[in-house]
Amino acid sequence: MSPHQYRSAGVTLVTLRRLGFLPAALLTAAALTACTAEPVEADDPKPSASGTTAPSGAPGGAPEEGGLTLADAIKTIPVAEEKRAGYERDSFKHWVDEDGDGCPTRQEVLIAEAVTAPEQGARCTLSGGSWLSYYDEAEVTDAKRLDIDHMVPLAEAWDSGAYDWTPERREAYANDLSADRSLVAVTAKTNRSKADRDPSQWMPPATSATCTYLVDWTATKLRWRLAADEAEQAALLELAEPCTDSTVEYEPAA
């Protein structure tokens, strides 16, 4: 099954899981069941939370079954100084039509994360629909008010290791539809407030988003073998202290 078909397997399931309404096991079972039906434009592209695992302890290896505690996952991120030299946003080709269905990455995420599915027109234009931006708990009924946030911003990814990647790997990162935490539809104002800042400098305004955001950030760093600087790691560990029930599962990017 292609990443696009997997993402299309459960429109609101990822949204519900992010908000804590669905356990991982139920999400996985629902997504796998949906894969036997005719694919519809919906959700969860990504086997990130329950996919195959790499050998434990290998660099960038996935966690044992059941995941890592958030604190342990944070400690697994390698610590290194950031390197901003040479960064240009155009170094990451993004919003591509990866599977040739006429819908670029932005539209794929909007379709996948819609609470109420939008109408899809020519060239994958979207009308109607509704979304819940988990950063600020805002309900949005106009897709133009939404940005697609790279969980770890492109500049932060560059600083943390992507400066040494091939253009092909940077493109894969910028259009990652194979993990439900890499890209997220949120209000434009929260995305632009975040800009390229890490959790030592910015966190979502909704307190309900704190633990989810830390899990998503940590899983993305581990999935793509990105480093954290000392200030980032310290902030992550401090912010994660109340998130005692949070676990991190991820699948390393190819």
Textual characterization of the structure:
This protein is α+β, with helices and mostly antiparallel strands and 254 residues long. 33% of the residues lie in helices and 9% in strands. The protein has helices at residues 3-7, 11-18, 24-34, 70-76, 105-113, 154-159, 167-174, 188-194, 210-223, 230-239, and strands at residues 68-69, 119-120, 126-127, 131-133, 138-140, 146-150, 183-187, 247-248. The strands form four sheets. Strands 1-8 form a two-stranded antiparallel sheet. Strands 2-3 form a two-stranded antiparallel ribbon. It has a two-stranded antiparallel ribbon with strand order 4-5. It is globular, with a radius of gyration of 17 Å. The model is unreliable at 1-17 and 19-64 (pLDDT under 50).
Describe the largest sheet: 2 strands, antiparallel
How would you describe the shape? globular
Query: What is the overall number of helices?
Result: 10
Structural class: alpha+beta
Bin the strand percentage: 5-15%
Our measurement of the CA-to-CA distance between the termini, rounded to an integer number of angstroms, reads: 16 Å
- In round numbers, the mean pLDDT is 81
Helix content: 25-40%
Strand sequence of the main sheet, in spatial order? 1-8
Rg, rounded, reads 17 Å
